[in-house]
Amino acid sequence: MDAFYASVEQLDNPELRGKALAVGGSEQRGVVAAASYEARKYGVKSAMSSVIAKRNCPDLIFIKPRFERYREISNQIRAIFLEYTDLVEPLSLDEAYLDVTENKKGNPSATLIAREIREKIKNKTGLNASAGISVNKFIAKIASDINKPNGQKTINPEDVLEFLEKLQVRKFHGVGKVTAEKMYQLGIFNGFDLKQKSLEFLIENFGKSGLHYYNVVRGIHLSEVKPNRIRKSLGAERTFDTNISSEIFMLERLQNIAEEIERRLQKSKVAGKTVTLKIKYSDFTQHTRSKTLPYFISSKDLVLECAKELLFQEKMKESVRLLGISLSNLNTEKKEKKEEIAVQLKFEF
């Protein structure tokens, strides 16, 4: 979907249409969750500090996110996907992979299917979607960004290798800013440069990811579309209006976060063993601390108990602007068997 959260807000409130809009954060604090295309012209983007976003775009309007509304529309969109194939792998509320090799419409053209789906989404929700079409997930993902917003791009099988050789490495899905800088230092600027490097060279410089880079630049990506994608973690975090230095206030915020996590765990019907505490200080440095338990937990009390322990591991050096808790090592892993799932119990003595 194109600027999904922001587009939903503009859809529901006509007064916001055509204006620079940021979902999430505020003028003083927080982080932008999504930005309208009008805001993106000023360099505003997701995960950007609200203060920097406002500096880039003085007329920026901040809106609180409404995830229930986004989820409602996301479900409508997913229902459209399922009219064409059951092989739908959601990545988030606004993005998914579809395998339409064999589809319910009997349409041999993935390009035409993508156009049809986009039209249905527009008619059903009033929102624009973009699509990428190719032989595997990696290339389709890259292609989906090429003609945004409200467009699509097909990379045909015979064009894949040439397309990848010309592609700048920073546009390779999964290559972030740090990795791109390292590639530049090694003389790798596009797919052609990457292709000249041996497997041994790439593994030596990029570890396990080296094999991935070696394969994808040759058009090899064998990951299937998985309709039942296993959740790996679940968490929640809060950015505060003013920095806090009192541990009493921190514990109060952690309790609220633990309650939110319990609600999400119950809704997803999962539990986890590893609790991670995330702390972002006033100077924007970020620390994480984790603890793995011998049993699965899902109650707010036990999550909070672990978070407290992690909080007091070290003395705070700065005031805190953000706290977050996540639970991983979930019992959704296929290797876990039902009989192995133990839950900590409390006994009265």
From TrEMBL:
Does Iron appear among the keywords? no
Q: Which GO terms describe its biological process?
A: DNA repair; DNA-templated DNA replication; error-prone translesion synthesis; SOS response
Q: Which UniProt keywords apply?
A: Cytoplasm, DNA damage, DNA repair, DNA replication, DNA-binding, DNA-directed DNA polymerase, Magnesium, Metal-binding, Mutator protein, Nucleotidyltransferase, Transferase
- Active-site residues per Swiss-Prot or TrEMBL entry: E95
Enzyme Commission number: 2.7.7.7
For this protein, what is any one GO molecular function term? damaged DNA binding
Q: What is the required cofactor set for this protein?
A: Mg(2+)
Quote the cellular component terms of the Gene Ontology held in the record. cytosol
Q: Which PROSITE patterns match?
A: UMUC
* PANTHER family reported in the protein's UniProt record: DNA POLYMERASE KAPPA, DNA REPAIR POLYMERASE UMUC / TRANSFERASE FAMILY MEMBER
**Subunit structure as annotated in this protein's UniProt entry:** Monomer.
Known function: Poorly processive, error-prone DNA polymerase involved in untargeted mutagenesis. Copies undamaged DNA at stalled replication forks, which arise in vivo from mismatched or misaligned primer ends. These misaligned primers can be extended by PolIV. Exhibits no 3'-5' exonuclease (proofreading) activity. May be involved in translesional synthesis, in conjunction with the beta clamp from PolIII.
What protein name applies here? DNA polymerase IV
Originating organism: Gillisia limnaea (strain DSM 15749 / LMG 21470 / R-8282)
**Encoded by which gene?**
dinB
